[in-house]
Amino acid sequence: MHLKKPRLMTPGPTPIHPAALQAMLGAEIHHRTQDFRNLYLSVLADLKTVLGTANDVLVLTASGTGAMEASITNCFSPGDKVIVCTAGKFGERWVELAHAYGLEVNVLQAPYGQAVAPHQLEIALSQNPDAKGVFVQASESSTGAVHDVHAMGELVKLTDALFIVDAITGVGTMPLEIDPWGLDIVIGGSQKALMIPPGLAFVSISPKAWARMQTARLPRYYFDLLREKKNAAKGESSWTPATSLILGLAEVLKYVKTLSMQRLIENAQHLAAATRVAAKALNLELFAPDCPSAAVTSIRAPAGLDSGVIVKEFRQRFGSVIANGQGEMQGQIFRIAHLGYFDFPDLFALIAELELILEGQGALVPLGAGVRAVQEYYAGIALPEKNPAPAHV
């Protein structure tokens, strides 16, 4: 009661893997030495393995938004027509970036908590055969919804447009078959499922996207991906890299390769499913029930209660940090993350905290019901069968 361990339960940043934290202490390494070149080449190769792609993968010293901007400046020319699928705060960021660089933007918008349907994109592509690109969030973490990236990719593959996917919270939480699905650019960030602090973005780039860069005319300098590719082949970044984060990333990639990306995804999906079961047991309304993300679960605050109060109580009473709603949903929903270095004991504790917070705020919740629901979910997937062992003859 008097001690409060900090617990980070947001959809970014997420808890740091212990091996990565230890590795980052060895950051006194010069980035123009052979030791670092070997490390960098290993990280780039391991990223390709973990992402399951034969495409080039580059690392940028930037937040994920830097890679989003790079995908525009390297692949498009002023006045190019593009289609942006937006269903939340980060979809709106695609719109803002495209406008900032003078692209002609056709916006396909879904209400917060929903997703743009593939058939909407199919219609937009038929009406705009000259579209040069399609942008989407794989997982819209501001609302806890996901897009059907596979179906969208199959549609875009039939056109000359590039399919550019912000998978910053999608990587490690949902299947993303980059090459078969025709995902031309896929963007990720270090502080999500890859369990290290913010500061690195990574981007996979298809041959189709590289070809487009040869004729694209938007200005770029720091985020010049052709230059980055040339230097990466030698084991160097174009500019001073975040060496400590690269060291940490190397350890996390080893861990994920041992665990397997499939199991990392399954871990997030089970935590998300258990959280939805707990919310139902506590008579709470899910915000994106039809297309729920495994990166983060969004839950409506009970009637008459600001979700900001719930977020504040988590932090002040228990030392736990969860996320409020963003944009128009601030004060209406709270968000619990599942991506990266989270496990079921984290969720047992968090749901118990949630029950106590709601009870303290006068909400009618059955104490223990949510925790029991998570325990039963866990028992159903992880405990041995309860049938007695066969008797020895």
Quaternary structure classification:
single chain
Strand proportion, as a percent range, falls in 15-25%
CATH topology of the largest domain: Aspartate Aminotransferase, domain 2
Instruction: Pick out the low-confidence regions.
Output: 387-393
Global structural class: alpha/beta
Strand order of the largest sheet: 2-10-9-8-5-3-4
Instruction: Estimate the mean pLDDT confidence.
Output: 96
* CATH homologous superfamily title of the largest domain: Type I PLP-dependent aspartate aminotransferase-like (Major domain)
Order of helices and strands: EHHEHEHEHEEEHEHEEHHHHEHEEEHH
Principal-axes shape call: globular
Distance between the termini: 54 Å
Rg estimate, integer Å: 22 Å
Descriptive account of the structure:
This protein has 393 residues and is an alpha/beta fold. It has two domains: 7-13 and 260-382, Aspartate Aminotransferase, domain 1 (Alpha-Beta Complex); 18-259, Aspartate Aminotransferase, domain 2 (3-Layer(aba) Sandwich), CATH 3.40.640.10. Helix content is 42%, strand content 15%. The chain has 14 helices and 14 strands. The chain has helices spanning 18-24, 34-51, 64-75, 89-100, 118-127, 149-156, 178-181, 207-213, 225-232, 243-259, 261-281, 307-318, 344-360, 369-382, and strands spanning 7-8, 56-61, 81-86, 104-109, 133-137, 139-140, 145-146, 162-166, 185-189, 200-205, 296-300, 320-321, 323-324, 333-337. Strands 2-10-9-8-5-3-4 form a seven-stranded mixed sheet, with helices on both faces. Strands 11-14-13 form a three-stranded antiparallel sheet, covered by helices on one side. The chain has a two-stranded parallel ribbon with strand order 1-12. Strand 8, helix 7 (178-181) and strand 9 form a beta-alpha-beta unit. The protein is globular. The chain starts with 6 loop residues before the first strand and ends in an 11-residue tail after the last helix. Mean pLDDT is 96; it is low at 387-393.
